[in-house]
Amino acid sequence: MSLTVLSVGYPLATVSESTAGGAEQILLTLDRALVEAGHRSIVVAPADSRCQGLLVPVYTPTTNFSEPRRREAQHQCKRSLEWALDHYPVDIVHLHGLDFDQYLPKTEIPIVVSLHLPLAWYPPRALRREHSRMRLIAVSASQMQAATEPVQIAAIIPNGIDLKRFHPAHERGEYALILGRICPEKGIHLALDAAERANLPVILAGAVFDYPEHQRYFQQTIQPRLSARVRFVGTVGGKRKAHLLGGARCLLVPSLAPETSCLVAMEALAAGTPVVAWRSGALPDIVQHERTGFLVSSVTEMADAVSSLATIDRVNCRREAERRFSAQSMISRYFDLYRESSGQTTADRRRAA
To answer: Residue 115 belongs to what H/E stretch?
Structure first.
């Protein structure tokens, strides 16, 4: 049965290969899989997004993400979503944004919500299943374990990556890679401290979004430390991202946030690159300590781990990624959920006829 899935991204984050955001990458992976499987994919996302399916653009600000501008972006997203529902026969609405409750449509169409961020970051009202057809999806078991209040989760569908896009490099560079959003909770400054102690050059790649706190962090804490040994290369995606991951001595993940998943850690392992990560959230479920990398709790421990990378078998890193992180399992489970949900809708409509 062919499906039409309407995916909705966070209105202030472009959906593209180079976007430094796990939610956007998962949306893009599902969008690509839907098209390849012969389904119809419609994506509501910022106008500069790049997807395989039909893009319904949201015209949102690209700078100065102040609170009034965030509210305006949510309003524009709601308008684009309602327009899409009016113009296309949609079977499933799949929401990915932290603020999904601000543009949750009033519809009888089944709704799937992937909760990509810590549950405590969502307003409590957003996680109440007031919509009878709404299903909340967790992206890892650790996300559920960290819940402070009971949440009616329909399923846990762990994130996955496209293994074909990442391969071990024939030759390694002499640098540590830090890749992702550049903001205080990602702890970039801690990784820079550790790399300096370990006397290892750093390539820093990722986006500095135009939130005041993110800009301030980059300008005051990160930018003064850039040098010939600490290079900032901006956002990367596609082959360039894969090349950087494959050539690195290690990936540093110093996140202070309770990560619900970590796609870049999975991608590094798929490239045969060890991961040195803060012991936070789902990271201990991704990185096998002393086998595919190291889990640390301080700058000193991170520096010591960087100096011990020779003990990690890079072939085993790739093997573990193949065994545990393929996107195919995630795609299959979402497709099953789409079919099950749309089948319920069909049955309900048949009974009502």
So the answer is: strand 111-115
